[in-house]
Hints:
By secondary structure, the chain is α+β, with helices and mostly antiparallel strands. It folds into 2 domains: 1-76; 78-135, no CATH class. It has 1 helix and 4 strands; from the N terminus they run H-E-E-E-E. A hairpin with a 2-residue loop joins strand 3 (110-119) and strand 4 (122-130). The relative contact order is 0.09.
Amino acid sequence: MFLLESNVRKFLKYTLITIIIILFVLLVFESYEKYQEYLNIKRIQNNLNYTYNNYLYKVANQRMVVEEFFDFLTDNNFFLIEFNYSLTDGLTAKVATFMEPTQKIKSKYSISEVSKINMGSNYYVVLEIKEQGVNQ
């Protein structure tokens, strides 16, 4: 038994095959675009995650710096008058304390004397303390 194809059926068959091939190619291109979009979203997500972790590190570091500064103040019995903190200028504080005339303060901070009042054997001193090594 022989099947005879008409010209119309041949044309429809080739057209259908062509459409299937075109749709397959479009499917491949769309899949590639979706995969690239997925990779971009992953990259953005990783960048945001890195930025957030960097922020957490900086905040923890700032807390440690401020905590260390206040520990220094309490260890030396300084009374806080004024306190400023900024990322560009660092820590600055004005403090008051009672000191003996020969007493020296060793510190990693820059300490300058603002005023001094003689109170007999001790001095009432107002000091300005600044953090060293901060970009200004």
